[in-house]
Amino acid sequence: MQGYFEGETSGDNRRRRRELRRRRKRRRAIKIILTRWVPFLVVCVVVVVMLVSGVKAVAKALSGDKEAQVKEEAATVQENETVSLDDIVSENTISEDAVSENIAEPEPLKKLEAVDDGTAGAVPGDVVSEHAVLISLSENKVIAGRDYNSVINPASMTKVLTVLVAAEKMQENGDDLDTQFTMTEEIENFSYVHECSNVGFSVGEVITMRDLFYGTILPSGGDAAYGLATYAGGSMDGFAELMNEKLREIGCSENAHFTNSIGLYDENHHCTTMDMAKIMYCAMQNDLCREVLSAHKYTTSKTPEHPDGIEVSNWFLRRIEDKDTNGIVVAAKTGFVVQSKNCAVSYAEDNYGNPYICVTGGSSSSWRCIYDHVSIYKKYLA
User: Fold this and answer.
1) Buried b / exposed e across 3-24, counting CB within 10 Å, b at 16+?
2) What does the pLDDT look like over 161-170, one tens digit per residue?
3) Residue 63: strand, helix, or coil
4) C-alpha of 382 from chain center
5) Fewest CB within 10 angstroms: 243, 246, 283, 314, which?
6) Is the dihedral of CA 161, 279, 283, 331 positive or negative?
7) pTM of the model
8) How many Å is the Cα radius of gyration of the chain?
9) Residue 260's closest CA among 280, 240, 231, 230?
């Protein structure tokens, strides 16, 4: 699933495998037809020769060595056809193995190494967020900032890394979005005790990985995020280890350390706004993560517990879509904990298609957080 900016997607690889299987079936069918019908065709040719050349000539052709020669030639033709088809099938199998190898070894994620060359501007005066950074991905530099290297608690922005790590683990396991997951009592109790926002799944409800991914991002579901942690890491602690490995891999600072998949406050759960920009940059390279982070609405699978599914929304995207930003905000994830207030990370493109990432933290409300992004984009996007 990696490789949004270049390379093939997992969907492309699945379509290729299906096409290879269809080709093999066609070739097997051709092989069977040749095996059954070539001798019959040879006999038909002989009959035609008999009719044209006369009974005497045909009798001569069918007598002795000539008859043996015809049979030998027919057998040779059939054998050659069979060998040729076997070779094709063999080559096709090798090609499919090569495709599988490509899926198992995706290209490494590109790291964001944006620099502050001293030309970065100030964020607009009406921005209330205590921390902010705007990065131009095409120029690979900081365009504007405010105290963006200070440590913050990322709250539910954490879930951007959650879906990235889980998406890569799902690909590694060979699973897909239709893979089923059963919601557990442990997950539901944890979400309730910690007062998490939730999708609303029921204990014992059988849902899909697709539901978990969209449920983690759009409504910021703690139940879905815990489900992804259980699937990918076996436990919350196991998943936290995977998250911290990914933080090191993508070049985050020493201040970046996560303890849970949800974004719950923990004195050991922290990063900087610049670290969050690096996480978002890598997530947008993953096709599944980009799709989920860009979705405005989603309805979960229909189940006995929820016959119509559960409709969820990304309210940041729905609220900002009609605002004047001098571009379009493509993807986003918000967050809130009392200790760090409202925060958000978003990915936008200006009117010329140039990409940007904006991260803010320490805003006074969810709406004010949105308007901070609007104000920053409007000032600096072309």
Assistant:
1) bbeeebebeebeebeeeeeeee
2) 999 999 999 9
3) coil
4) 30
5) 246
6) positive
7) 0.73
8) 30
9) 240
